[in-house]
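Protein in question quoted for reference:
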Amino acid sequence: MNGTPENLLVAAIQMNAGPDRERNHATALRLMTEAADSGARLVALPENFSYIGDHPVAKLANAEDPENSPSLDLIRSTAVKKNISIVGGSIPLRTADPAKVTNTTFVIDQSGIPIARYDKIHLFDANLGGAKSFRESEYVRPGALPVCVNIRGWEMGLSICYDLRFPEHYRILAAEGATVFLVPSAFTVETGRAHWEILLRARAIENLCYVVAPAQWGRHTAARESYGRTTVVSPWGEIIAELHDGEGIVLCELDQSLLSGARAKLPGIRTATFRGDRNIITQKRDDK
């Protein structure tokens, strides 16, 4: 990090996206505008802000071209108009394989330029019982490497949803200088109730970093529902802002003195010997 960053007001957005991209865009624009008008200089959208549906085939059909993405155009134009930086939740992007998309976060600076791209590495393959089975790996191509980016003077590590369960991902980001973790998510209700808060706080405590976690909330389709609970956690592991239910924004100031104070109390992050092979976090799975 070059010098000491100034305090930064961030806004984490909670949405209830669905299969209608135009409706999702309208909601995202309204909430980003509200956040900017409230003074936020960094606005973070949740995972899948542009589209949530039931079936992988529909997601493939709604994937966007990386060179011609309406969702990316929306966040770029909003960044310029409102003079804000935006973490673009995630967007399904086409790949060379017509049967696979990426689950991608773009970071946009206030001039509308993409300054980072992160493709979700850890894909949500889970069987929660009954009809609640998820196989994200069947239609999503995983990313390869973690990504850090400097946003308005703060080093921030990128992640998406299920990445949260892999502490090595965040240790690598911290070793590369991150002091803030961004976790746009769409946790299921069942896993959210059991693990969401615990995991967010654990990642903050382990690395003495802020965690900013914008989330999807509510029922998206007849078969899909998200937990919500958009949350910001301090480097000491305390929840300092949250929104339980409904669409809206969570505002919180990233305070350099609070970060420095936490790291002075527990200097372990400076002395940790783990540096890691960045490829260690690549999820192992059968590609059948």
Observations:
- The longest strand covers residues 101-108.
- DSSP finds seven helices and 17 strands in the chain.
